[in-house]
Amino acid sequence: MGNFWKELKKAPISAKLGMLIIVVNAFVAIFAPIISPYGETEIVGSEFEPWSDTFLLGTDNLGRDMFTRMNYGARNTIGIAVLTTILAFLLGSLMGLLASTLGGWVDQLISRIVDILLAIPTLIFALLVLTIVGTEIPNVIACIAVIYSAPVFRLARAVSMNIVVLDFVEVARLRGEGTWWIIVKEVLPNSMPPLVAEFGLRFCFVFLVISALSFLGLGIQPPTADWGSMVRDNATLITYGDVTPLLPAAAIAVLTVGVNFVVDWFLYKTSGLRDDH
Amino acid sequence: MTTNNDSDARKGEVLLEMRGLRIEGNSEDQWHEIVHGVDVTLRRGEVLGLIGESGAGKSTIGIASMGYAKPGLRITDGTIMFDGMDLRKASETELRALRGSRIAYVAQSAAASFNPAHKLIDQYCETPVQHGVKPRAEAEKEAVVLYGRLRLPDPENIGYRYPHQVSGGQLQRAMTAMAMACQPDLIVFDEPTTALDVTTQIEVLAAIKDIVRLYHTAAIYITHDLAVVAQMADSIMVLRFGDTIEVGTAREMIESPKEEYTRQLLAVRTFRKEEEVSNEGLDPILKVENVTASYGGNVMVLKDVSVEIHKARTVAVVGESGSGKSTLARAITGLLPPLQGQVYYHGEPLPRALKQRNRDQLRRMQMIYQMPDTALNPRQKIRDVIGRPLEFYLGYKGAKKEERTRELLSMIEMEPDQYIDRQPLELSGGQKQRICIARCLAAEPELIICDEVTSALDQLVAEEILKLLQRLQDELRVSYMFITHDLATVKAIADEIVVMLLGEIVEQGPKDKVLAPPHHDYTELLLSSVPEMDPDWLDNILEHRRELESHLVGQRPPD
Amino acid sequence: MAQILKMVVQRLALGLITLFVVSLIIFLGVELLPGDLTEAILGQAATPETVAAFRKELGLDLPAHTRYIQWLGGILQGDLGTSLANKREISELIGGRLANTLFLALMAAIIAVPLAVTLGVLAALYRNSWYDRMVNVVTLTSISFPEFFVAYILILFLAVKINLFPSLSNVSPDMDFWDRVYRVFLPALTLTLVVVAHMMRMTRASIINLLASPFIEMANLKGIKRGRIITHHALPNALAPIINVIVLNLAYLVVGVVVVEVVFVYPGLGQLLVDSVSKRDIPVVQSSCLIFAATYILLNLTADILSILTNPRLLHPR
Description:
heterotrimer, B: alpha/beta, 6-stranded mixed sheet, globular, disordered N terminus, C: mainly alpha, 13 helices, 78% helix
């Protein structure tokens, strides 16, 4: 732990900023009901009221408090994105490790399925699937998680492929160790740094695509507060030169920037991706 | 092309003088000094050998003579005077004008150092044309002459090939030709033969030696191999950890070194195991019978190979790259189940594939690898590395496991208290290899397959490992199958020798018999290619080689 | 040469197979609908008669494989079927919109590609300079921006505050070329900003990778001038990676178009797709998805083939 603080001290300003952003977002998401003056779906005023003491950021198109909706939006949007990323990750990396360790037809089969998944553009595929299964939240989560497990699979497979051919894995095979032991004890610990970085990157992509879906009206459905649909619902205000609808969009951007900064630093610290040698 | 009479006349004049050279390297965002004030003096037409183990700074110093530091390195102090010009004060433009035309460089990996997008001759002509030394047509003509002098096949046309269309040994010679293109005053050879097989190495060495002599070019020859540098250099400089240990003429160094470190380097190839009794009448513990194997396709990597290994004996399997020696190990361990033939253990047939073998069969046969870096899981402590086979094969747990782990560490001459909780990353190459040996011993095996176990190590460290393995054999009566390309290692440790070429055994038998004439032609070629600690060896051997080669056509591995 | 031809043919075949499988997925996805499609669309209240009529109209009374073959055959002849929402021919509906989408994507590409490649190469050449560091932070930031954020910022400043460009990109077929360019400018700029960052980072990475090769060091040690090292030694080998970067980003662009079209209410294929998804107009969704997917696959295929064709090791086999 002491090591971590030491590293953090040496981190570039961008990474520190990123950490701060993530911490603030996490705080808001967790304590949304405490820091918000009103209820998530409570109609508290008339439509599009301006910023004031009662309504810190004004009200939205239905007269709900924007500030409250922003806080709950953090909770919903980030929560769903995190859950989706975790699912995508578990699925993708497990499959990747299995494919590389077992090799042969298992690898071939999963790899070909993933090739097809990756051959279809993500957003288009998500739109197609959501048309068919409907836009309930569990559907959105499952659909995006499956789609995003494909690139995770690719990475996990590539990373562990490089490890599986190393002599210490052959030593374990020669010793007679089982597949599970090899995955858990030999391959996984050595695949962690790139996978952790990938988790950050994937979170950004998932977060952006869920926001985009919500913005298109096909992701998280009303009356649940969420940043993507808040932009959509209040977009008309922009034509009057009001920046309020840009706030949720900015929130999405800021969090993604923060995560990206941290991932960039992490990659630089842990992997061969540092380009100066 | 005329020889450089001008420089001939000025022979003896100092060409390059580096004084108090200090170089720093960057790691973990910090600068550390890696060369600590080294002096180098080189006269016209003279060849200086820079020798040392890894970390000695020999390449860094050699390349600094061009006023160049690789990315991540910087020259911090000292002077580099080249023919009256201080390269540390020279501008980038002046340095570029010098490089390639007056000082040229030959890299270790020719395959990576040629641009894949251009033909060899275009890359040859680039230097003289760009430096305005001579026009393209003239340069091309000279290239053909040089290719011929470097004994490249078909010198008229080989230049019109792309780098990946030419073999490694030929590329190295083409790169030497490229370095000669402007008839430079100085060439820096950076381990030019390290990546080559012995029988290829000797040709490249001979070609370089001839051409440098012919043109009276001064050269800096960088290598880790004292025997190689003895052939090439007039004088030798021994380096260690960025400091000069000793400088002198090649002959002085070989015959009467002053420093202890130089003596150690010289003594490297003198270790010999004591003679043992013959195997006659004894049953082998491992018997490989008529094994044929392939990685798929019609190419057989092993063809009808039979080998026997007896208790407490060492069988050395020798061959160059592509000989199938490592594949033999894979076939025996079941990693690559043989297509035909059978492996017997104590007379019992072993299942072909690894997965079909039981735990006891696996336990009795262990393996050590070439790269100790990749043979140890960097995320496991030494305790777990050695403890796992104890638990897995022998069911040791708790205090018993701990005690045995410590015992094994003592056996490989590593202090248990100091090392048991370390991670592999904190150990040196030699220490890692010792841990690998301890891991094998933990299984209490009868046979250990050693796959090039010393080739990735520095010579002195390699020597220690060989001695350790020998001591362990004497104490534990374990057998070794020793796979190597290095004949010096074979001479040191083997009881029996198996010589392989293109997947087949060309000769096998007790060490004395195989090493004594009459030889099979290929064994002869292999044996005679190993450089000896004698400055005249290369010249003497070449004459003899020409005859031999003439009746070996078509029998050598495609180089 | 035979080897190259073989590889190209292999990639082409692989691309076709992928396309085929994707078409199958798009078609069969609908089959997986829980319950009956008709019920989902017409609602619980529909009478058996209307359901039957609707089923017949959709061809749902035929077995799946027959319908797939009919559907695919139709598409190959340019017949995409009819929309459920307004009963119009889908090919007619899509035709003009596809052209609009391609126009927008092309315009973005024309600005983005030269800009991104130049800036990326410069960042690689002046690595670790303040310019490079700035580029790193700026591109990392802009990658993190959702497309609609960039779009609305541009609208706010360039359309609302200073009224330079229209905030809605409503184009019509009878508009002249320059008027069209003017109206499409903001969406094209949005796409450019989003895609340039990606393309630049990838270009920079591949050039840096290349400049670290031993043969570049060799060229330096041969005393070759810096400019010539770039043009003569780096560029011939950089072609493949750069082409790859460009084509991959074009593919990305084609998809990014969807959100941007919605923001600017631009009558393109993306907007149609989103509308049809909300209306659950399945035949239109299927056709638009197929077109997007096919474009994406073809672009990726092009990247693959071009990188084979520019690889010197493959161009001059042993």
